[in-house]
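Re: folding output
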Amino acid sequence: MARRFAIRQDAARNRAAILEAATALFDREGVEGVSMDDIAEAAGVGKGTVFRRFGDRTALIEAVLEPRVRELREAVETGPPPLGPGGTVPAYVDALFDFVWRNRPLIRALEHRGPYAYYANDASQFWIAELARRLEGVDTDYLAHAVLTALRADVIDYLISARGMTRDRIRAGVQLLAAAR
């Protein structure tokens, strides 16, 4: 029994070290510039340990994003207005925009995993449902999906890099879209 407990503690410690290393590297160097070998080395574990703990790169990226998603979700579910219950659509859209802005490299790495990956994950399902709940008017389900599409990291990056739009202009446009009821 003591050996099994020690193995579990070691596995938990390795998982935490991998997440800490991946978070630091992704935030500092971007997702594309970091290999699984880099993460393993920074965490002080073998590459095989990284794959045993997370399975693949996608699962590791999701695990890095998870506490950030949880923080925003808790603020939406239990925080004070204007973001928490009874809060406004503009405050919610701003919070989503800021979340995507801060996490663009991680989100971009996940956006193209499959034809519906951006919309089918648990976090996006929550964001859509909450947005539809806060919106008023006709076809809030469609509008919530359209607003979330405007908040895709690849869309935001395209508008900035290829179209020369500013962050503030994009934010205002998403707010305008969300107000179109």
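--- second protein (sequence, then structure) ---
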Amino acid sequence: MPEIRVMNTSELPCGHKKTVKLGETEILLIHYEEGLVAVQSQCPHAGAPLKEGAICNGRLVCPWHMGTFELSTGALVEPPPMESLKMYPVRVEGGEILVNPEPLPTATSTPVQKEELVLLVGTGAAGAIAATTLRQGGFAGRILAVDPVEEEPVDRTVLSKMALSGEMPLDQIGLSTFSSTKVERIHAAVLELSAAQKEAHLSNGSVVKFDKALVATGGKPKQLEIPGAELAYTIRHPRDVQRILKAAEGKKEAVIVGTSFIGLEAASALVQKGLRVTVVGKEKLPFAKLFGEEVAHALKALHESKGTRFRLEVETSSFDSTWVTIRAGEKDERLPADLIIAGVGVLPDLEFKHDLPRAKDGGIATDASLRAKDEVWVAGDIASVSGTRIEHWRLAQQHGRVAALAMLGQDSRYEGVPFFWTFHYGKQLEYLGHTEDWDEVVIDGDLKELNFMAFYIKQERIAAVLSCERETQTAMLAEVMRSHPTLEQARQAIA
């Protein structure tokens, strides 16, 4: 296609981005330190406007979920996107910027014809991106995925958010990666895995011999050990949401036991569907342990302003078909409950025999490349990477990609910044980094209006950042946090 003159170079100074539309194609022009590039205008993951993203370290960071791309090539650096950016030919002539709306050919790796079988134990976030990364890296051998849940892989992050509220249909949350990457599927559970023998015994009676394996069985919801516990729903798979939505029809009173992210996201979704929701928890404040009391008060106030009711600092004693019994001090109290959801966290799903090294935190110990033993890598909720285990879908994707690159023989190791997001009544909170304690919390912005950045400082360095309504600034910090900045350095970066 012929080039099109789109603007004068004076209209796009260094450090700026501008969207242009060429026919039906919308293109983002970016002028950064190393030159001028033209890329697709929306993130390939969820369609976020990349114009609102951040440019840092020669990379473009998506403002919604921190997907990261190399600007010089468009290559994917960090998920949740599972593909690189489309790049368009662009050049400067006579002070004018010219763009060809026909995208450049996608870079592909030469297929490596090996008679190898890679076994994926688990088809969640880590398994899905591992399969994609292997194929993108040229692996042409067999990939066999084993999982008892047929509807995986899906974008699990939307289950307790948009799917439960009805904002996003369940048939739109699937990831089509396995059909596009020629992955063989077996719907079964792994009963035993031997890294030494390179074999896995499955619940359907078969034995799989593998050359390399990625174990990513994820987490399983914790079960309450109280009378009537079987009456409570949990949220892990699309079928769980389907059951809850069906059970909620015509109901008025819902009780959610647990102040986890899933519990509070579910509260937000069900209140918006017209139910009266009471959240029951042992804690004094939801999220206080992770975010601190000041932020926790603000989030609780948001929920209460929308109709969520709380009964905190209580124990849950029992369930029956119409009541939840709680104990506050020495007194029992019954809460009306047409629908009960348990959101009390997850445990590593490791209900199979194996010879992998166990970590003190209950997961499987791995090195920075996600290798646990011999030719077996471990990723996601069950992976304790260099002594740290974090349960989140996006981190599982980071793990899966790192492990797949290591399988391909690259010097791959996890050096990214952990990131997760949570969604409550239209407010998305984004958390970068990881810390279990801090010396100080510094809040910039208006916490009451939930337009802020909270910096969690430990030993004069930022260990974590929580933000709301600060997407572009957070995207910038996703790169800056790699160097463990001081508060002053972080503020300068986002000024």
